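Changelog-adjacent note: as of this version, every example in the card shows the full chain rather than a window. The one below runs 224 residues end to end.
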Amino acid sequence: MASPDESPATRYYSESEVAAHNVYNDAWVSLFGKVLDITPLIAEYLGTRDSILTVPLVRFAGQDITHWFDPKSSQVRTHVDPVSNLTMPYTPHGRFIHVPPNEPSSRWSTNIAVPWWQDEQYIVGNLTKKSRSLRVVNTLTHQTHVFEVCSEETIKDIQRRYVLFNEHAGSYTWKCLGRVLDLHKTLEENGIADESEEMASLGINEQQHLPSLQLYYNDDLSVA
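Full-length structure tokens:
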């Protein structure tokens, strides 16, 4: 979740958040650590003679498709066709938008300046390297919420996520074990380590030992 005034460069999304956008009219994918909203791209081609090129994108909406591309060139992977002995795009799930056909075609447009997978207009943020669960306790309302956050997010970013539960998230002082947290630092930078992997190795249920943040009301009605 991100506020409208955030730059895509500072936004982070978890795999589960990307996975939620998995239909033709709400389609996200991730590749090379970036999250792309290709909904308008698909909409542009649906109903046209090239609508079949949207099929692989819709099929893999909500997933990571980095493996479709060469890590060095960031272009579509290629292979040598055994019949023609020519190097061609490798698209085992079907040719998709902006990938040239294997055979010459008058329908193929050669004036594509930037293919969609390199077009920054589709980037909505970054794919987190690791997500973690967090428990937030509102000491005023005595409500507890558990939700997923990204390891790269600052407390301020987490505060914005909490707006889903309380629109006055900015009216609280955020603490952990009685210590006021720095809103501009991540959980790790605030000394709240991610021990999920260690717990998993010990067979401990992470959900029973989540880090807990406490919110203390500041007596104002600012909206985060």
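Structural remarks: The first helix runs from residue 15 to 19.
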